[in-house]
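Sat 14:20. Reprocessing the chain from the morning session after the first attempt stalled halfway. Input below, unchanged.
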Amino acid sequence: MKAKILTNDPSLIVMFRLGSIEGKLVTETDEAYEDFKASLKDNDLAVLILTKTVESWIEEDVRTHRLSEGAPLIVVIDG
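Finished this time. Tokens:
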């Protein structure tokens, strides 16, 4: 099982990589949506970390996933 972060902040990518957590830098809504959907299909992903900015771009999709009670666990952090 692994974790991944989707963020618009390059410094968070570096910080999480130091902890062996894969990161993806997203800069726009469409890119965030595509990476979010691709992440949900990854069967080895246990935790998907989103920054508040990225979560605000895809808020409805995050809410729908959380209501489905499926994996991965979605965690939203400041950033």
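The mean pLDDT is 95.
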